[in-house]
Amino acid sequence: MYKKNFKRFYVLVTALLILMVTAAGCGTKQAAPEAASVPTTVTVTDMAGRTVTVPTNIKKVITFNAVPPLNSLIMAFGKGDTIINGIPASMVKMPQTKYQTILAPQIAKGPDLGSTPNVETIMALTPDVVITSEQSTAQALQSSKIPVIYLKSSTSKDDIEKAMTILGKVFGNPDRAKEYNQYYEDKLAALNKTVATIPADQRPKVLNMWASNMAGFNSAWWIDPAGGVDAFDGQGMNGGYGGVTVRYQISYEQILQWNPDIIIVRDAKDIPSLESNPQLANVKAIKNKKIYVTPAGTFTWNGAVETPLLSEWAATKFYPDLFKQADLVNDVKGFYKEFLNYQLTDKEAEEMLNGLQ
């Protein structure tokens, strides 16, 4: 009898102990794991080697100097809606800016900040970051404590790729920059498979110029990959900043000396001005009516986000039997869909290939 009662007592005590431990465990608050701290700023190095700290959540951007090309690069990151300034008056009426306001409509109502930065005006707009193509702007805004990123106007593939890498860090999307840069590399590699077989003595001499200003440009970086030879020779010439690239003042004598097979201009109005000039009547490109207008979309492709397509376009002009316009139209549409989230029609793509003239 004693053993039976003791056994019952033992079972009862054990059960009570289990209940007490369970209750104690349920009543103890478990310490919540500490949330990982999310950085609010990121440090980047711009193309002047300056270390700049910018917020990680960028909502308001001001672009300065080469505004349309800078805007176009930002649009590739899906951040066109963060641009709060308008296109400068000197550029707003240019046909080449058409797709700026199609892709980022608010730009049409943004303020024109001119070409010289006004610190008070810019501070009043409270941008998270200013992105400029001139170091003088960055210096002028040093006292404002607004983060300023300098991206030089692109005169090489390397410039474009560096600018995109920096913007990838600024906008917290380095993978996008890698995708874009890889697209550029792949595009030129595919082009090279065909043009590499063309003998040097069969490649056209090509001059890229802005006829209305008699300005010439170093353009070997996109003419050579297209199978051409840059006719421009800037040795010993005085160069200056031209808004979107480095340009040099050239003369009729130099054009005659270079005697290009093809001339590429910025504006359709340049074509009749060259063709009607008696001093240039013997230039091969003019005699053979081989003058072409640089394509434009977000802006003139030379230095804008569409630059990876520029050599392909040039190749269709240099070697129309090897490179077809229809293939280029499809590539332009694919590029806009992939990098600008915009579905072009064939007509729109063809309009771009004609320089939006």
Can you walk me through this structure?
The chain has 15 helices and 12 strands. The longest helix is centred in the first third of the chain and has 26 residues, at 2-27. The chain folds into 2 domains: 41-173, Rossmann fold, CATH 3.40.50.1980; 198-353, Nitrogenase molybdenum iron protein domain (Rossmann fold). It is globular and about 65 Å long. The model is unreliable at 1-29 and 241-245 (pLDDT under 50). The strands form 3 sheets. Strands 6, 7, 8, 9, 10, 11 and 12 form a 7-stranded mixed β-sheet that branches. A 3-stranded parallel β-sheet has the order 3-4-5. The chain has a two-stranded antiparallel sheet with strand order 1-2. Helices cover 41% and strands 13% of the residues. With 357 residues, it is α/β, with parallel strands linked by helices.
Low-confidence region ranges: 1-29, 241-245
Main sheet summary: 7 strands, mixed
The average pLDDT score comes to 89
Q: Can you tell me the CATH superfamily of the largest domain? A: Nitrogenase molybdenum iron protein domain
The domain tally reads 2
**How many DSSP-defined strands?**
12
- How far from one another are the termini? 110 Å
Tags for this entry?
Rossmann fold, alpha/beta, disordered N terminus, 15 helices, three-stranded parallel β-sheet, seven-stranded mixed β-sheet, 41% helix, 357 residues
Characterize this entry briefly.
The protein is of the alpha/beta class. The protein is built from 15 helices and twelve strands.
